[in-house]
Amino acid sequence: MKFSLISAGPNEGIDTREGRKSIAAFPPLSLAYLAAVLEQEGVEVSILDQPAHGLSNDEAARWVEKENPDVVGFSTLASSGRTAAEISGKIKEKNPDVVTVFGNHHATFNAERILKKYLAVDIVARGEGERTVVQLARCLKNGEDLKTVQGINYRNGGEVAATPNQPLIKDLDTIPFPDRNLIGAEYHCLMAGANVAPKKFTSIVTSRGCAYSCRFCSCTEFVRNRWRARSAENTLEEMCLLASEGYKQLIFVDDNFTLNPKRAIAICRGMQREKLDMEWIAEGRVDNFSYELAREMVKAGLRILYFGIESANQRILNYYKKTITPAQAETAIRTAKKAGVDVIVGSFIVGAPDETRQEIENTINFAVRNRIDIPQFNILGAHPGNDIWNEFEAKGLLNAEEHWEGGIAVAEICPTAVPLEEVKKMTHSAFRRHVSRPSFIVEQLAKTLRSGYLRNVMLSNIARIAEIREGANSVT
């Protein structure tokens, strides 16, 4: 038996640059994990990261035809679900007998809708996939009834059937390391248009889920409000493997890398003990970020730290159920700077239902006042799986059947919100103002002179721009 797994590209209508940032920025670890457990089961596996390879939908379908698998599995997000459906249709035209399966967040929260709309999709796998994909492989190989596979939706006659949820994997150390060798693509991390990971780069996940209930996030629902962590020893074993394979830079893609500071410190001290020469990016919560933790992270190679600050207004934070305060965010930023973090990224969400223009300005000014290196201003969205979606569907302000495939900005449907186009203009202008200030430019130049990492990033991006210009000149 053979499985071919595809990370689909951005849906038609999504800006190509934005699509690559959201979909092809990092290796599709979810598929690499599925590949690892299938290989343990004796199943042949191939992986295609469509956007990373720059393939059209027709080319992706031809790749599948060449691979000739028994099963094609798609990792789908809101930004890629329609693309996956189109490729499925092209695959079925050539080979009606191949089994097509959708998984990941988009599939989990829209299982029945997908099967009703897209007849070329046979099965939808919900939630965590490692156990489900193994059960499915055994079921299909042995010709058993799909009702024996937990965590799936499928067609049963003219109806869509659903099996009980797959139990979450309690001990993440029992899962084999993801098989990155099958992916066959080169990745780099882009922030504010710059390649901040010019060396051999990959991603790693050391925990799954989140213990919090932020209303704008679907993670809570996806993992049933559970946070599970790999041990520091298991994490370090994988990192040593990555180092032996030549990786020099990585990003921790955990939803909450620092949720347990003791575990995070143990990982960092282990990296120092193993003398792992790696530069890395991670997320930190502002309400449990100590100087001790920050210093251990920096000594272990942390270069970019991402804080989910969301708003400078406590009223809006309370609406989001973020359970932090602006004062905690300010303290965490000062702590990170004192500890020697090279780059601090602050993520903000604006466009809440009755958020005022002044409150949006407060958030913009917070980024300036606290000298955040890279502010990311996001617009609040309603998506299947997050509580914001449930709220506006219940209020009758959101047509679920119209927006389930891509979600929608709250400012587009809420009469009390600042209009969407105005919010966009405010955030775009805010970012330009932030990075064009003379004081910001002087501070960044001084930091670059002090930091070997930032100097390398600057030189790599100058070379990259020169290559792009040279290529453009040769075309003209």
Q: What's the main sheet like?
A: 7 strands, mixed
Number of domains: 2
Task: Please state the oligomeric state of the protein chains shown.
Answer: single chain
What structural class is derived from the secondary structure elements?
Answer: alpha/beta
User: Hey, roughly how much beta strand do the residues contain?
Assistant: 15-25%
Please name the CATH topology of the largest domain.
Answer: pyruvate-formate lyase- activating enzyme
Q: What number is the mean pLDDT?
A: 93
Amount of helix: 40-55%
Q: Count up the helices.
A: 21
Overall strand count: 19
Contiguous uncertain segments of 5+ residues: 16-24, 471-476
Query: What is the CATH homologous superfamily assignment of the largest domain?
Result: tm_1862 like domain
Distance between the termini: 49 Å
CATH architecture of the largest domain: Alpha-Beta Horseshoe
What spatial form do the alpha-carbon principal axes imply?
globular
Radius of gyration: 23 Å
Polypeptide structure, described:
With 476 residues, this protein is of the alpha/beta class. The protein folds into 2 domains: 2-162, Rossmann fold (3-Layer(aba) Sandwich); 188-461, Alpha-Beta Horseshoe (pyruvate-formate lyase- activating enzyme). It has 21 helices and 19 strands. The chain has helices spanning 16-23, 29-40, 50-53, 57-67, 81-94, 105-109, 111-117, 130-142, 219-222, 232-244, 261-273, 291-299, 314-320, 326-339, 357-369, 387-394, 400-403, 410-413, 420-436, 438-450, 452-475, and strands at 2-7, 44-49, 71-75, 99-103, 123-125, 152-156, 159-162, 190-191, 194-195, 201-204, 207-209, 227-229, 249-252, 279-284, 302-310, 343-350, 374-379, 381-382, 408-409. Helix 4 (57-67) packs across helix 5 (81-94) and helix 10 runs parallel beside helix 11 (261-273). The longest helix is centred in the last third of the chain and has 24 residues, at 452-475. The chain starts with a strand and ends with a helix. Mean pLDDT is 93; it is low at 16-24 and 471-476.
